[in-house]
Amino acid sequence: MQSIQANNYPVHFNETGYEKLNQHLKENKYSNLFIIVDSNTNEHCLPKLLPILETDLTIEIIEFEAGEINKNIETCIQIWNVLTELGADRKTLIINIGGGVVTDLGGFVASTFKRGVDFIHIPTTLLSMVDASVGGKNGVDLGNLKNQIGVINTPKMVLIDTNYLETVPQNEMRSGLAEMLKHGLIFDKGYWEQFLDLKAIDFADLDQLIYRSVEIKNEIVMQDPTEKNIRKSLNFGHTLGHAIESYFLENENKTTLLHGEAIAVGMILESYISLHKNLITEAEYNQIKSTLKSIYDDIIFEESDIEPILELLIHDKKNEYGTIQFALIEGIGKIKINQSVENELILSAFEDYKS
């Protein structure tokens, strides 16, 4: 597949990616190479990468425990300390191989260590391939609040090898699928319609579906790298979805949700809001709701859950001047950003989701 040129960096696919990675190692005089992994990718993915690397550089592996709960500044401090102890300098290269937690955190570590060293992302989950590793956002959570601390800074390249997906559990695949569905809903109606009957999809075509998703996200980001305008469209489903994800992460009585599971709920809720703002038709809403509910299990919300979720909206990064801003769909395949939504409509959306 042809490489995609993003803002200051390329996204390479499969075997081409490894050729470009080794070429990059030859052409740049790095002092050493650090590979950041989590406990899952250290076991399942690193053994595939290491034999392919063509370099005489000293390679050090830095592992942290897998899971969103470890995507925090404490983990960064530990990694910064290890980098320092093992002699990392301004000419160090860091490769982040893993899902969104690894690429988000690893990119942030690299962007801030000694005011920034080069880094490369090798995403290994569907979610990180189509979303987390593309677009230059790097960061960590602040307590249970998602991605509150971070920078926008681009890698030297992103290398997408879909063979890594063979190690990814089905629930993680569904989590990544949510972002692909979002790309269709906000940008490409025809792409969305490819997913209306999952049984009809030949997953031999998965490479092409991933490619199109990266294309869509990249096209949006290229227009608005720092999220002042159209890039906010990528937040469809995320205003409520992130609040739900954060609430379930911090509440010990709840089962932690995967990112895509929370975003799927967020997309249903925000589609309902779009309907009641006369931006989509009832038929479009019913199609979105029934499609998402056929893929994702219903999440149970008690009455006592809703108020704390709404309180978490206050911390959403899209807020401006204390007003919560939504990106809503204006027909399938189009988006309307900077939409204010009253609490009564949000509560009504939750009631409809539960019905």
From TrEMBL:
Documented EC number(s): 4.2.3.4
Enzyme kind, highest EC tier: lyase
One Gene Ontology molecular-function label: metal ion binding
Positions of the 3-dehydroquinate synthase C-terminal domain: 176-319
Domain 3-dehydroquinate synthase N-terminal: 62-174
A Pfam family: DHQS_C
InterPro entries noted in UniProt: Dehydroquinate_synthase, DHQ_synth_AroB, DHQ_synth_fam, DHQS/DOIS_N, DHQS_C
Keyword entries, A-Z: Cobalt, Lyase, Metal-binding, NAD, Nucleotide-binding, Zinc
GO biological process, one term: aromatic amino acid family biosynthetic process
Example of a GO cellular component annotation carried by this entry: cytoplasm
Cofactor(s) annotated in UniProt: NAD(+); Co(2+); Zn(2+)
Function: Catalyzes the conversion of 3-deoxy-D-arabino-heptulosonate 7-phosphate (DAHP) to dehydroquinate (DHQ).
Name of this protein: 3-dehydroquinate synthase
Lineage: Bacteria, Pseudomonadati, Bacteroidota, Flavobacteriia, Flavobacteriales
